[in-house]
Every structure is written in C-alpha cells, then in structure tokens.
Q: What sequence folds into this?
C-alpha cells in the first residue's frame, strides 16, 4: 500500500465518519458510532496500527495525517455529544434524582413562650419601654403589700398563692412564689426616679387547678409608665397601638371598668374576636370579645409607697399572659401544652 | 351572683333587652358572664297557661288519666297525663302539638308530636318543670299560682332572664339585687325605688324581752336586732321561693327564706335565732374562748379559739358571727319567737376565721369584703316586715341598735383638675356632678373650717371652689375612700370607650443595659441555629428528682413550697439537670426513633439559710442541654449513628465561637457523668460549666435507654462574665495566601489533642490548626497514638515559600518532641 493510498483511505474514513455522525441523534447511537469509527476494530485504528509496516520515511507524514483525522473525529464526537445533551438534557448519563431529600441539617428552635414574649416586648420596646426582669421568689411585701393589697385583704383571693415553707417571727409566711410580675412595679420605682417606662416578662405561679385555659406555672408581662402628665387616654392609646401590632391594624379594642387593687381607675382590655369577627363563638364565649389584659392608672397608694408624689406623678400599669396571646394567635386550645415539653408541639413554633 | 331580671324590675325600670343590659353593666365594671333566658324556646301560641276543668280516668290504663284543659280563647283540649299530682281546678303549663320542649326520655329538645297512648289520642301535654327547662322536677306537673291568666303565653307569665354577674371583691354592695339596680339606674338614667320597710309593732318594747351586749366592739361595729313573736314556721310563699331559686338559693322555711331573700336584696347578711333556745334570752357578741366548740348549721363541730367572734347566749356560743349560725339555736317547726340579727362585723377577722375553719358562706363572702354599718338597721326593718307579713307573727316595739362607735361615710372632694390629670379629659363640672348624683353621691359642705383655710391659701378662692365638689359617699358603698375612686366612678359611667386615645408624649427614659436578658436571648438563638430546640419546664420538682442528679445539698436543702399543688412540684429546683433529662425521657417515650437535641435556660433557686429572714434565695440563670438518639433521621446520604459527646460539644462550640469566646475543654470528673467522657469548660481559666455523657445508672433512674446521652450545663453568669474579656475589635485579614501542611504526630496515648494543638498554635505564623484523624494500630507503637493535624500558615507581610513553611514545620515538630516526646509518623 502506498502512502498516497493510505492518505486517501484516511480522508475517506474521515468523510464517511463525519457524514454518519451528522445522522446520530442520541447517546446510544453516538456510542455505536464511536465504536465503529474510532474503536479498536475501526478502520482508522487498524490503519494506524498498520503504520509500523510502512517504510520509515513515510511514517511521520502519514502518522501526522492520521492523528489529525483522529483528533478531528474526537472533537466532532464531543461537539456532537454536547449538542445531543443540549437537545435531550433529561437523558444525560449523570442525571440525579432531584426528588431525594438533601443532606439532613438539624433544625432547632426557640420555645413558643420565648417567641411570643419577644414579640410582645418588641412591640413595647419600639414605644420606648425597656425590658427588665425580677425575682420569681418574692416577699409578700412586694407581691402584695406594696401593691395596696394588705394581709387578709379579700382581693387576695384573686391570686391564690404558693407559699415558701418558712415563717417569720410573727408566724406569717413572708416568702412566696410571685403570683404576677407586678411586684416589679414597686421594685423599679423604688430604685429609679421618674420617668419610668418598662415591661417585665417572667415566670409566675399560682395555687390553681389546671384546665385547658389555666396553668399554675405560666408567664406574665407587666408594663409600667410613670411620669408627669400621663393620663388614661395615654393608657388607651398605648394599649390600642399594641393590639394593632400584635393582632393586626383592623382589630377593634374595648376598654371596660375592672378592679385590681393597685390601679384606680381599673381597666380590662379586650379585642374583638378575630375568629368570628365579633359575632360570637366558642373562643370568645359568645361575647364577640376576648379579654387580653388588665390595666389601670397606678393607684396613688402604690406611688406614695415608693416615694413618688401622686399629686405630681401619674402613670399606668398593665399585665397580660403571653401564653394566652400565643394561643389566640396560633389557635392552640390547651395552655398545658406549653410546659409539657412535647417536641412535636414545640417544633411547630420554632 | 345571679340576678333575675324579674326581681331587678322590682326596684328599677328595665327597658333594655337582657343582653344589652348585660353589656352595659359589663362595660361599667359589673362583668356579666352569662345571660340565661328561661322560656326563650316557648312558642307563644303553643305553650300557654291552662286551667284543668276535669280529670277522667283512662279507659285502658290505671296510672294514666285524661285531663280536659281550658287553654283560653274558648278552646279546650283533652290529653293523656300520667302525673300523680294532677287535679281539677289547677292552673298548669300546657303545650300543644308542635311545641318544642325538653324530652326527659331522649335528653334532648324535641318537637311535641301527636301520639296515641294506650288507644287514646293525645295532641298536647301538661308540662313538668323539667320539660320546660325550669328545674329538675319530673315527679309531677308544674302547678302555677291560681291567678295565672288562662290562655296567656307561658313565656310572658313565667319567662325570665337571669344575669350571672362576677362581682369584684371591692363591691360587696353589688352582691345584692338592689346594688345592681343602683348600677342600672346610674347607667340608664332611671331611678331606684327602695322596698317598703315599714312594719306594725306590738306595744311590748324589745328591750324588756331580750338582753343584748357587745363585749368585743373592735370586732363587731354595730349589732341591730328585732324580735318577732308568734311566728309559724312553714314554707315561704311561691313568689319568694321562685325568686330564691332563680337567684340560686334553696328554699328552707319561711323565716330562713326571708333572711336569705333580704340578704340577696340588700347585700346585708342576717341571721334568725330561736330566742327561746338562747339561755336567759340573752345575746352576747364576744370572742370565742380557748377550747370552745360549736356545732354549726351544716352539722360540723367547730373548734374555736380567740379572736374568732361568736354570738353567744349567757353561756355558750349559738353562732359564728358573720359566717354561720349554730345548730343549737336553729329554726325548727316548734319555733315561735325569732330574734333577727343584722350586724356589722370586722372584715379581716371574718376572713381569718372562715379561712382557719376552712369554710365559706354567702354571709362571710359579704362581711369579709366590708359592709357599711349603716346598712344593718335598714335591712333589719325590711326582714322584720317580711317575717311579720309571711310568718304570721308580730314584731316587738322598736329594735335593739348597739353602735358603740359611729362610723360615718367619708366626705371626699373631687376637683375638675384631678379628673383631667388622671383621665386626660377636661369634663365640665356639670357632667361630673350629674354622674355622681346618679350614683347616689350627695353634695355636702367641706369639713368645718377647711373652707376658710382654702380661701386663705388659694389665690382664686371662688374659682377653686366651683371646680371642686364635696361629696358624701352613699351609705351602701364601702369602696370609695380617695379622690381617684371618684375619678373612676366618673369614667366608668361616662364609659371608658368614650375617652379619646393618645400616644405617650412624655420623655422616653434613659435606656438601661440588661446584659443577662440579652445574653439569654443570644444563646437561645445560637443554640437554635445549631439545631437545638428550646424547652421550658416547671421550676418546682421533687427531692427524689434532685437526688437522681446528685443535686441535693444536705447542708442547704432546696426551698419547700408549704402548699404544693402536688408532691411532684414541692421543692424549688437547685439544678436543671433533672429537668432536661426528664424532658428527654418524656420525648423518647413518645418518639423512640427520633434523635433529640434540646436545651433549657432557666433559673435554679439556691436558698440562703443564714439570712433567709432578710434575703431572697439566689436565683441563678443556668443553661442545660441534652442530645441523644440518631444524629439524623434515616437518610440515604448520612450514615445512621447515635449522637454523643461531640454532638453536644459541637453545638456549644458553635455558640461560643459566635460569641467570640475562646473556651478550653479539659477532662473533669462529675458525679453523674461517665468518667473519661466528661469535660470541664473554662474561659481564661474561669470555669463555665461541664459537658459529658451521662452515666448509665443515672439514665436508668430516668427510664432512659442505654444509648449515650450527652449533657451540658453552663452557668450563665459565668458566661456573661467571660464575655467581658471578648474583644470584637476589627482585625485586618492578610493579603497573602495561606499554605497548609498535614502532620501526623505520634504521641503517648494519654496526651490530649488540645495539648498538641496549643503547641502548634504557639508558632507565630500558624493561623489555625485542626485535628482531622486519630489513629492507633499497625505502624504506631503500643501505648502511642497518631493525631493528624492540618496546620495553616500565613504571613501578614509576604507570601511564604515552601522552604519557609518547611522550616516552620520543623520548628513545630522540634517543640513537640521536646515537650511531648512526639515524633512525625513515618
């Protein structure tokens, strides 16, 4: 075989191969093409293997020619592979099942009480209230007496108390688990001069049988604003603003008279029921209104007790149960879920 | 307090529908929880008053009878009836076919259908109380009063609405129908008509027939009494029984019913003694003697002690003042002379006595809230009149009225300026005056001499006076003692809803840092981001639970709750360890296959036994966490492995790093953690807490299985203190590239990775290093281990050449050899 014959043969192979490649339009066919034109038994490979039998002076030129042809075919192959892949991407050999789950990443979360307490405190913080905390084990003095609730006052029935087992010289139990966050009112005012504007979140405890709406161990958020010139219209405006932020700008609020010994006048704030829009349902006990918090103007006796002149300073206080607000917002029907620590419950709010 | 509208209407016109009235009362402070409307379901045409004309026997049944009933409009109906108390001439409640009634058989409200009963057709029925929803009685039919108008809708005749009011503890006056009537009058602008209290009397003065004295005037402010002789004990009339039942009281006998009726009417508890059972016809109001006993009307034998107040005869107690009468002076069918008591007792003593004796009555509920002495004679006259009228006796002439120290209702002033200061609205004086008059406040003169004083002091005396009201508090109100109480009266009657709303416009106070509160929130967020779930558990626990985690300090035992709700929650926790293990165990029981990563930030309560009279316990914020179970849910990518020490440590390291804190972990023993698998944590030498795997015997005590449970505990105060040393100042990053070398370092098996790392990182150009492989086995001699570190070098000034890095590496190896007898693994 002459050098020229061989070159013609190579050119012929290349031309047929490229022609055949143009007709290939899927990957299996492409693989067949590769075997038949570039595989071990293909004409080109055979021909290149037979170069050794050629005269030495012919080998370099023919070798280079054959190699160029092979590279041309390789490039054409990879171009064609890309074209086919582009036309039929779903058939790509390295496709993955994208419906499989990803690498597991543990998901943590904060407790629903923490979450609602933050939300409530943030609403008041934006109105200039600072967040402070206080002791859970309290003196009767702060929990009751400084709040205008002396011993044996009938209003004490409103706060069934868990007492620490320890009696003072008078045979009275002076130490208790705070029944509300209100003792911080006196503690804060004793240690600062007006103006005062704080919210106090924290755990409280009551000697109370539990049911879906009552828990003996719960949180409360207290609020207090005292200065010259704070009036009940400010109480209404502040708490209305809070309700708008927590429950939406369309919420209606209702203020009515209520009694707490440490405020005068005393206030109960309700919002219109967002389940029935005020028509009456089980959540609002068919009244159309849901009680959200107790409030009122700080009683002059409380101000006097901490050394504030009630003729100069006035202010308002309020207190609410964050679990109850969370229950309303998330449709939780049993308050006891909060501290039974079932992760299936807790994870829903993280 | 149950308030039947029919009763309320005796004193004040009520034009609002019941629910509207309930709303108005609620807004003004008397919260109405429920409005029960009786007869709401009675069809006006189908449920009517009937008159039984005749009663014939049923042809086929002995127990059944066939009444013929006049149902008005010239119509009559004959129906089948099985009630034994049916009789001709009775006025009864008749329901026609189609009426909806309660069916005792099905227990539901049903439509009455025509029926054939033993062959006789019945197109209606004579109703029992139960079928009408008026009571439990189904033994017989409901018999109406003889004056019931035949054919009239029963709803008009018997229907009523009952308001269930929650009375706040400051308003004992509202524990009465008259008190509510006064509220209604003030809200609606109507006037109250007080009941008729006049009573004919005999010629014999009461003083000649009984002797009464108060021995303890500090505990009994006023004692009034009347005497009615010749009474005949029997049932009270139907109207009184109806009223009592609707208000939630059980009728007993005519005399007792009158005392209850007047208590509900005026809010003044009364008591009736059979004066013939009181020795020497004498009543002494005195404190109990030590060891004295009294059997009260409920049959309980009570052990008394001073200063419990008794009503006694010349020798023994015959009643517990303001709480309950004694069985020894009870009304019986033989009673003919009644001594009626209407008194005023000290509120605190009443409350302490009933609490000590663990009893609570309608009377004590009222007295402990403080009732004005002025009410006693008024209610007494009313009850005397009713007993004379109903029980057939005659009242002795006059009443006994012992009133050692007169207690006048206070006189208060209210200025327009104060109303404006507290409410934020400048109401005209005329409106303020009108509200207070409607509530029964009377204008009066300032206390003597004061007016001159005001005029002497004030620049504009006349203006000041016209803008200030002097008011006498109504005799029934015990809750008004300061000016702001009057402000509330003005606000609540005008209506809180009518006050405008304003935003706070006073100065915002200085912000005070609250580092602990902030740190708790940060740590919560970091651990949550590290995959852990926050939990919150009850603070009280049991001694047993604390001892399970070895947290009982014999020398300083935890605080005990004197009246725990349950033994489960008796001691204030001194450790959170048991809380988190309990929570873990609880969740493992529910979902055994799932892994759990949980933490809690909460307080422990450490008593201060030396100074408990002065100091509250130390409330320390603690962080605990626990991880256990599979690291991931069954997954196609991740190998299924149980979590352990390094999962807990990883979460903490993540949090510490984010806080900028460099924390050292060193082996440490802990009584509930496995030896060799526990570490103490410290920052700059100050301890922060511990982490380790919990001992198997401890896990067993919490019913946890044998999988590893890693637990950590951090003292939040220590963490906060450590953060003081953290600098968050900016540090420039090097512009030159890093290069790293992997070094497998062979050391004795007991040398910790941290020691190797400290030596490596001591080199000035090492920016970080991390162990990435631990190897023990072939090629490493016995008692030695290989720890492979990736060591990263970088300079701030130049790109390091490989020759330089090689030199640094050898420097480090030399140092390791010297200090730890280390060698490079070949």
A:
């Amino acid at each position: 075989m002459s050098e020229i014959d061989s070159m013609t043969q190579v050119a012929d192979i290349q031309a047929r191969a490229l022609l055949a490649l143009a007709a290939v339009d899927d990957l299996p066919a492409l693989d067949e093409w590769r075997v038949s034109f570039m595989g071990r038994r293909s004409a080109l490979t055979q021909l290149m293997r037979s170069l050794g039998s050629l005269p030495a002076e012919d080998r370099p030129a023919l070798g280079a020619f054959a190699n160029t042809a092979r590279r041309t075919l390789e490039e054409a192959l990879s171009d064609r592979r890309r074209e086919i892949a582009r036309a039929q991407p779903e058939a790509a050999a390295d496709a993955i099942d994208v419906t499989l789950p990803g690498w597991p990443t543990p998901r943590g979360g904060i407790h629903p009480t923490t979450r609602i307490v933050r939300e409530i405190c943030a609403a008041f913080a934006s109105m200039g209230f600072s967040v402070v905390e206080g002791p859970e084990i309290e003196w009767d003095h702060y929990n009751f007496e400084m709040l205008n609730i002396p011993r044996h006052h009938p209003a004490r029935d409103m706060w069934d108390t868990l007492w620490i087992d320890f009696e003072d010289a008078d045979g009275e139990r002076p130490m208790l688990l705070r029944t509300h966050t209100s003792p911080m009112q006196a503690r804060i005012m004793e240690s600062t001069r007006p103006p005062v504007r704080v919210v106090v979140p924290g755990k409280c405890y009551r000697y109370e049988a539990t049911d879906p709406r009552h828990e003996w161990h719960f949180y409360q958020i207290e609020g207090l604003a005292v200065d010259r010139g704070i009036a009940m219209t400010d109480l209404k405006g502040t708490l209305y603003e809070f309700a708008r932020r927590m429950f939406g700008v369309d919420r209606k609020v209702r203020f009515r008279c209520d009694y707490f010994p440490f405020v005068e006048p005393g206030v109960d704030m309700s919002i219109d029921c967002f389940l029935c829009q005020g028509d009456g349902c089980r959540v609002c006990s068919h009244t159309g209104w849901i009680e959200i918090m107790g409030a009122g103007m700080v009683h002059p006796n409380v101000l006097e007790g901490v050394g504030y002149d009630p003729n100069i300073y006035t202010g308002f206080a309020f207190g609410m149960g964050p679990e109850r607000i969370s229950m309303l917002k998330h449709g939780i029907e049993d308050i006891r879920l909060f501290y039974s620590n079932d992760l299936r419950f807790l994870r829903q709010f993280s | 307090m149950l308030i039947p509208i029919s009763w309320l209407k005796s004193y004040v016109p009520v034009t609002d529908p019941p629910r509207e009235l309930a709303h108005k009362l609620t807004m003004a402070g008397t919260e109405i929880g429920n409005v029960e409307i009786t007869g709401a379901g009675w069809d006006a045409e189908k449920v009517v008053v009937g008159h039984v004309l005749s009663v014939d026997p049923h042809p086929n049944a002995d127990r059944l009878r066939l009444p013929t009933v006049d149902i008005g409009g010239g119509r009559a109906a004959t129906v089948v009836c099985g009630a034994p108390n049916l009789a001709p001439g009775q006025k009864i409640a008749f329901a026609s076919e189609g009426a909806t009634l309660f069916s005792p058989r099905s227990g539901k409200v049903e439509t009455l259908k025509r029926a054939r009963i033993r062959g006789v057709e019945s197109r209606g029925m004579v109703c029992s109380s139960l079928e009408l929803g008026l009571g439990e009685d189904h033994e017989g039919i409901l018999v109406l009063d003889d004056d019931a108008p035949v054919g009239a809708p029963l709803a008009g005749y018997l229907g009523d609405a009952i308001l269930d009011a929650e009375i706040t503890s400051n308003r004992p006056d509202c524990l009465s129908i008259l008190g509510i009537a006064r509220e209604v009058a003030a809200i609606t602008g109507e006037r109250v008509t007080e009941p008729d209290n006049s009573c004919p009397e005999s010629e014999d003065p009461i003083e000649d027939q009984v002797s009464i004295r108060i021995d303890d005037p500090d505990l009994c402010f006023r004692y009034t009494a009347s005497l009615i002789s010749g009474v005949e004990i029997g049932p009270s009339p139907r109207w009184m029984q109806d009223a009592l039942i609707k208000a939630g009281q059980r009728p007993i006998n005519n005399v007792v019913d009158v005392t209850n009726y007047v208590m509900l009417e005026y809010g003044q508890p009364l008591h009736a003694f059979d004066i013939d059972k009181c020795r020497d016809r004498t009543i002494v109001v005195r404190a109990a003697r030590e060891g004295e006993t009294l059997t009260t009307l409920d049959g309980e034998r009570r052990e008394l002690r001073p200063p419990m107040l008794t009503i006694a005869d010349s020798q023994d107690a015959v009643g517990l003042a303001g709480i309950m009468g004694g069985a020894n002076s009870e009304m019986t069918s033989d009673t003919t002379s009644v001594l009626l008591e209407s008194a005023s007792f000290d509120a605190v003593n009443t409350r302490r006595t009933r609490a000590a004796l663990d009893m609570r009555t309608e009377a004590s509920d009222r007295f402990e809230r403080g009732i004005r002495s002025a009410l006693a004679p008024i209610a007494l006259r009313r009850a005397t009149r009713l007993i004379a009228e109903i029980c057939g006796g005659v009242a002795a002439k006059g009443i006994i009225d012992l009133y050692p120290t007169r207690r006048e209702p206070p006189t208060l002033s209210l200025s327009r300026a104060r109303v404006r200061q507290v409410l934020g609205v400048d109401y005209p004086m005329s409106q303020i005056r009108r509200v207070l008059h409607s509530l029964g406040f009377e204008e009066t003169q300032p206390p003597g001499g004061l007016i001159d004083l005001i005029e002497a002091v004030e620049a504009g005396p006349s203006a000041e006076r016209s803008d200030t009201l002097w008011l006498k508090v109504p005799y029934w109100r015990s809750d008004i003692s300061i000016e702001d109480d009057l402000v509330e009266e003005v606000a609540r009657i005008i209506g809180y809803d009518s006050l405008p709303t304003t935003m706070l416009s006073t100065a915002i106070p200085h912000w005070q840092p609250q580092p602990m509160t902030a740190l708790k929130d940060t740590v919560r967020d970091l651990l949550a981001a590290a995959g852990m779930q926050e939990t919150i558990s009850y603070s009280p626990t049991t001694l047993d639970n604390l001892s399970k985690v070895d947290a009982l300090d014999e020398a300083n035992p935890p605080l005990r709750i004197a009246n725990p709700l349950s033994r489960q929650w008796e001691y204030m926790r001194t450790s959170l360890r048991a809380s988190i293990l309990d929570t873990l165990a609880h969740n493992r029981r529910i979902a055994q296959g799932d892994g759990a990563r949980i933490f809690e930030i909460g307080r422990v309560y450490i008593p201060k036994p030396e100074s408990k009279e002065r100091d509250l316990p130390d409330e320390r914020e603690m962080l605990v966490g626990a991880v256990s179970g599979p690291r991931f849910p069954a997954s196609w990518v991740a190998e299924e492995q149980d979590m352990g020490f390094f999962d807990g440590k990883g979460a903490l390291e993540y949090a510490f790093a984010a806080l900028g804190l460099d924390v050292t972990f060193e082996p440490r023993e802990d009584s509930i953690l496995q030896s060799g698998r526990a570490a103490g944590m410290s920052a700059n030498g100050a301890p922060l807490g511990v982490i380790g795997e919990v001992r198997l015997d401890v896990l067993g005590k919490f019913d946890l299985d044998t999988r590893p449970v890693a637990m950590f505990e951090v003292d939040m105060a220590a963490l906060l203190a450590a953060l003081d040393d953290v600098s968050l100042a900016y540090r420039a990053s090097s512009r030159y590239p890093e290069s790293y070398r992997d070094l497998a370092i062979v050391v004795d098996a007991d040398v910790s990775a941290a020691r190797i790392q400290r030596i490596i990182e001591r080199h000035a150009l090492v920016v970080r290093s991390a162990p990435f492989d631990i190897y023990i086995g072939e090629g490493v001699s016995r008692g030695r281990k290989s720890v492979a570190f990736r060591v990263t070098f970088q300079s701030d000034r130049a790109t390091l050449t490989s020759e330089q890095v090689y030199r640094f590496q050898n420097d480090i190896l030399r140092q390791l050899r010297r200090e730890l007898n280390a060698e490079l693994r070949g």
Notes: Confidence is low (pLDDT under 50) at residues 459-464 of chain B.
